[in-house]
Amino acid sequence: MSAQPLATSLIVLPVILAIISAFSYNKALRYAVVYSTFILLTLISAWLLTYGPFTLTYPPSADLLVTILDFLLLFYFLYIGFIRKHVLVILLTLLQIAPLAYFEAIAHEIHVSPTIIVDYLSITMCLIICVIGSLICVYALSYMEEHEEHLHLKKTRQPRFFFYMILFLGAMNGVVLSNNVYWLYFFWEVTTLCCYQLIRHDETEQAEKNALLALWMGLIGGVAFVVAMFVGLLELNTLAIFDILRAHPSIFSALFLALLSLAAFTKSAQVPFHSWLLGAMIAPTPVSALLHSSTMVKAGVYLILRIAPGLRLLTPLSYAVASVGALSFLTTSILAISQRESKRILAYSTIGNLGLIILCAGINTPLTLLAAMLLLVFHAMSKGLLFLGAGIVENRVLTRNIEDWEGLLMKYPLTTTIMLIGMAMMFLPPFGMLLGKWLAIEAVASSPISAAISFVIILVIGGAATTLFWSKWMAHMLCHPPTLKQLKVEKLPIPYIVSTFSITALDIIFSALAAIIVAALALPALKPWYSIGLSLPLLNILLSVGSFVTWPLMAALALVLIIAWAIAKSKKGIVAPPYLCGEHIEQDPYSFTTTADKPIRFDVANIFFDKSLGEPRLNKIITAIGVLLLILVFSAVV
Amino acid sequence: MIQALVSSIVLIILAPFIGGLLCGIDRKLTARMQNRIGPPILQPFYDVLKLWGKQPMISSSLQPVLASSYFLFSVVALALLVFRQDLLLAIFTMALADVSLVLGSFSARSPYSYIGGRRELLQILSYEPILILTAVGFYLLIKSFVIENLFKAGITPIAYLPGFFLALLLVLPIEARKSPFDISASHHAHQEIVRGVFTEFSGFNLALIELGHWVKLIFFLSILALFFTPNLILGSFIAFIAFFASMLIDNIFARLTWKSMLKITWSVGLALILVNIALLLHLGV
Description:
The structure holds 2 protein chains of 2 kinds.
Chain A (H helix, E strand, L loop, with lengths): L2 H20 L4 H25 L2 E3 L3 H24 L3 H19 L10 E3 L1 H32 L6 H20 L3 H19 L5 H31 L5 H6 L4 H17 L7 H5 L5 H10 L1 H16 L3 H23 L4 H22 L2 H32 L10 H4 L1 H15 L4 H14 L6 H27 L15 H19 L1 H13 L7 E2 L5 E3 L3 E2 L1 H21 L3 E2 L7 E2 L6 E3 L5 E3 L8 H4 L1 H21 L3
Antiparallel strand pairs in A: 1-2, 3-4, 4-5, 7-8, 8-9
Helix pairs in contact in A: 1-2, 1-6, 2-5, 3-4, 3-7, 4-8, 5-6, 5-12, 5-16, 5-21, 5-22, 6-7, 6-13, 7-8, 8-10, 10-13, 12-15, 12-16, 13-15, 14-15, 14-20, 14-25, 15-16, 15-20, 16-18, 16-19, 16-21, 16-22, 18-20, 18-21, 19-20, 21-22
Chain B lengths: L1 H32 L9 H11 L3 E2 L4 H20 L4 H21 L3 H32 L4 H7 L8 H14 L27 H24 L5 H21 L5 H26 L2
Helix pairs in contact in B: 1-3, 1-8, 1-9, 2-8, 3-4, 3-8, 4-5, 5-7, 5-10, 7-8, 7-10, 8-9
Keywords (chain B): Membrane, Transmembrane, Transmembrane helix
Membrane topology (chain B): Multi-pass membrane protein
Protein name (chain B): NADH-quinone oxidoreductase subunit H
């Protein structure tokens, strides 16, 4: 019986807190609400973890409530479509309202028992949403103050901002807990609403435009859900996801799963829907961290992981889904090389990593699913952290152009160190993301499908591009003239410290204890459907095809730091200017003199290949291939 | 068991010495080819010893940590290989060492080391996919990424993976920092990039980088030798021959641009690997 308050509080509590924050014009009250959101949600999600899996059935009156709220929401979308005069939004909303009204008219029962199924996949997602998500809300407290200071607003818009941020947490919990597709669809649409409102938060022309782009692309997912519900109700006689997953595969269950995959692609910004996520980067950075990297875009990935056991019975469809992920991973990893804007690099990398997770889920062997789970957890932490760092930097240097971030380590050592750790954790051993990528390569290589090797080659090429764009960005932040001065650590507001330090610590601890994530979350999540043969000797990871020795690598890393510290202590060197093939100028480390004693200024610049990669041209081609792959997904149904 | 452990540890400790010796022989032979007398074979060791005691000229305070990271992770990568662990993980660990070097070279605001770092990244981009695909090639053969299982399987990989071996030979000059691919740093300090990635390292830090380079060379040659398991002596012999052949090529060829390097390694290297994979799948191995 105690399951009911638990599940209900995960959804309803954020809604209540959101409503309170909508009226929090007072700074102290706002801080109190957001900090209590963080503390309460962390505690509840910890309770959920210890409570373990359960199912719960709400009475039909709750279904009625969801139905009513859903129609209200759809009419609100319609209203937005009309006042913004956006045909696609109107059309896509009508395409949902009309069928749903018909649905009600023929008086179909949407009640499903149980309404909520909690397994370890939902628990993993809830932990990410409640802990990482609410830490990002804490971060936003300081960020939005600085942000509004730069904008010189007369009246603060923060209450509205925090309303949607915290409401979003509740909606996201709803998405990952629901077994009823109608409920899932409703919460899904609420996240679309939050996404729209938060992207347009600054109310500039460009922000409104990009928000509408995100909205209509998100609504495609909604339409896919509505059609899927028709298929479910009329042909499969149920709206319960778990029942459909267990059902004997048929052309209709395949269609149902393909439609859900389409919705997932829109939410996770997979090619050809990737443009909305890049546009969404115009939003304040906490939004990018919360919605567009660590949680909302994960809803799509979550959905694919959720239906993976069903897809496994329909291999052509599953591989078609994998190929959409593969295309997204490959192309965005390459495009990220050409980007100069910090948040666009992070966005491309996010799409790429989501693609990687979808690729793994689509290949659909026990090991690839394990890789997908690890990537899901570690990406939420590392990429969330990177957005937080990027936001702090942006509010200080007032530019997103990473070429202007040269030598940032000297100016903002603390923030830059956080960014550097986040980046290292994205692609270097022995950290979590690399563990995931390592596992992905080994798992895909050892999968039985005949095209496995082409997927491996995509992983390898995309991975090489990833190494390039992260390293060159890290390197540029280190570049500085020699100096004797002690670094002055910048002061950061407490919410920044709380959020970034916690996530960094979590990421490092769980990279070292990745075996615990495997044993406590990933394996239990997969156990009902997949049997995985692996062992965790001394918290290292041993597969039948390979082994990842986390601890020796962690020890080596510690040793490097100790030795480096000892060297720095014992070997006092002389500070010397770099070699410049000319004479140095004392006061100006950026120039030197050569013939005729004329000072010559020199610059260092990074590599981008933006001309040869040609983002706009390449994007058209990628979108075209993406559309073809979507057709492939649906042709795989038959 | 204990004997194996001891010999593995001895091998890891010896690795930099073998690497240094190879470089010494290399310098001597190169000199002879150019009608010079050349330095003594032990010259690389004298150089490193001298650097070891020198006071470093620090142009970036991050160099100690990044130089020692380069050296230590090269050793860790080699250790993973010697202890017959996961080949893919060993290659990723070596990538960590490489990235440390790149970060070290970028960290000083010098045009020469900066351009060296940029080019070093492109070199990584050139050979990394081939190395990782080699690990996958071994997997295709023995259904495991763990080197121990290669020994257990009793298969000689070169018979099945010649394309992979040739692709590795193609990128050997990059690893050995030799023409035509010595574009990020050159042994000869008269190029337009001065010493490239190494320009700003000095004293003890440079000694660490040099040691790391030797270990890395042995790492790469060991992978070549693995193709001849179980006959590792033959494998090592062929790996050494390959190294000296690359020296010969070094003296014949001029440096290419980074564009040609990327084109050659990605087209020829990947083509060799793909043809090999296609044959493997066709033969059903």
